[in-house]
Amino acid sequence: MIDQILRRLLISIPVLFGVLFLGFGLLVLVPGDPAIVMAGPTATPEIVAAIRTEMGLDDPVLVQFGTYLGRVLQGDLGRSLISNKTVISELGAAIGPTAELMFACLIWSVPLGIGLGTLAAVSRGSIIDRAIMAISVAGVSLPIFFICLMMIQYLGVQWRLLPFIGRGGPLWTLEGIRHIALPALSLGAIFIGPVARMTRSSVLEVLKLDHVRTARAKGLSETRVILRHGLRNALIPVVTLIGLQVGYLLGGAVVTESIFSFPGIGRLAVGAILSSDFPLAQGTILVLALGFILINMIVDILYSLLDPRVQT
Amino acid sequence: MNDAAPLLEVRHLQVDFHVGGTVQRAVQGVSFSVARGRTLGVVGESGCGKSVTSLSIMRLVPQPPGQYAGGQILFDGDDLLSLPERRMRDLRGGRIGMIFQEPMTSLNPVYTCGAQIVESLSVHSGLKGKAARERAIELLDLVGLPSPASRVDDYPHQLSGGQRQRVMIALALCNDPDLLIADEPTTALDVTIQAQILDLMGNLRERTGAAVMLVTHDLGVVAQTCDDVVVMYAGRVVEQAPTAALFADPQHPYTVGLMAAVPRIDAAAGRLATIPGSVPPPWIEAKGCRFASRCPLADTRCRAESPPLRDLSAGHHVACWKAPIEAAA
Ligand SMILES: Nc1ncnc2c1ncn2[C@@H]1O[C@H](COP(=O)(O)OP(=O)(O)O)[C@@H](O)[C@H]1O
Ligand SMILES: [Mg+2]
After folding, report:
1. Is A219 in contact with B119 (Cβ distance < 8 A)?
2. Domain A87-311: which topology?
3. Structural domain boundaries of chain A?
4. Distance between Cα B19 and ligand 1 center (Å)
5. Which residues of A touch B66 (CB under 8 A)?
6. Which of A120, A300, B158, B246 can bridge A132 by disulfide, Cβ–Cβ 3.0-4.6 Å?
7. Boundaries of domain holding B40
């Protein structure tokens, strides 16, 4: 197990390197000049030029990347051009909320998606099955911002059930939970569909297999056959799907955080990009990539726990 | 309870499959019985309805598309086709054990072999924890799995096909069944492993006294292991006899054809006899004998009228117009 984690980490190094390069490259390519941002609106061209030279922006791109890489490896991600705080501290403050949001989203949407998918599979062709599939198609096809706005409109404004601005505190406090509820519901809503559909088809596939017939021939109850010999095996592809969908979920988190003014990495990223805060934008991309790698690592470990045929 | 009555009696069993708006009768009035301590062989080519018949005894034909359209399956006096599901579950894996044709896929890949046996033990015998594990090891030892105490924790993918089939046998036997149904237990295995598995089943039958229903398409296997034989063709029984009688005096041209197709060591090297043609799907309507199209003896009567199953001599029944009923009388 430890072996596997180490191997995963090693494989991640080139990926991280690529992410750094892409993040850096993108920001070189996009319009906007960090020197102008730093200098402020009243600066003369001479001042901007001086800042450009000082920041090394006139060096060849590869040299700039080398310098950037060197600093990143020393743990120095620079300072935000806007707030002048270190990027590390800005990121540090935002990681917790985003992790909470991910957790709060997955904790309800994955079990519910799996439950609905299994229910749909065992009642295949019935009205229940069709209703569940209709709901999950709706969840997949509605844009996330629309879901967020509906949540705000009804649960937030009209019925005044839950707050919809900002974060109320850590997840273990009541206010924390109340504030994270709507973002987590919105983000989870787009995730239930894929999980339910994948679970449904996977369970249907597994229930056709020979070992399920053996389970029935052992005299097990139908519930036990479905849960222990159907769903249990069907979870293997479902977990893989969840891993593949993490990017989609992180993208959704960027939108959700922005709409709910939730102080996480996603909102930080959007703010940084909109205000041409290059160092901060690069930092957020790096963190999102790290998150992606980390979640996939967890998924891989889960996968090998679920499927004994995978070498550990 | 009457000891003279057979343990299992299948009477005029009919099983339909509803496929794409049509009704396909895969088993058409099959009858046979198995007495305690005896081994019945059920033979026939692929598609004859052997698996559907054996699954019916466990009431495990998938419904839909399957449907039990008629007949009875009496097990120790109870009609299994009308037994409440709850009691049927107690029988499955309890008093009736079943082994399947596909050792590679019949075990669940995500649980250890031991866990799969323990599950059955705990459901039927209430055996749990350490006691169940000990019993599982004992069973694995009984079926000849090497180093059972460590193999018990192996996953199916760590075992060979023959070893997996041994585990399946242990699973089928774990609650001391009165009836063991083995649906082509060796078909998917190498020839040498086949012989080992058949030996094992023979030994176990002697030790446990269970009645066995052995489905196979290999008459050679039947000759070695069975007391009685049922020959099936296109969803029906065409001949039924004690093994010795059947081999001494096969009456149905299909049985004769199957026997000619068994490879023999003493036969001159050369082509193996085969029956020309193939089994028609059982539900295809035919006026006369189903075998007529492939039968060397068929005449106009065979093509016009379906032959009933008749007594040829005590215990020897055959469904063929050509069978010499007078000679045996
Ligand atoms: N689940 C099913 N759906 C439809 N037809 C089936 C099903 N299972 C078996 N049959 C049909 O029943 C007939 C008998 O099959 P089977 O009992 O498996 O034959 P055997 O075991 O003798 O080779 C076959 O023609 C097969 O197509
Ligand atoms: Mg078969």
Report:
1. no
2. MetI-like fold (1.10.3720)
3. 87-311
4. 12
5. none
6. A120
7. 6-95+177-249
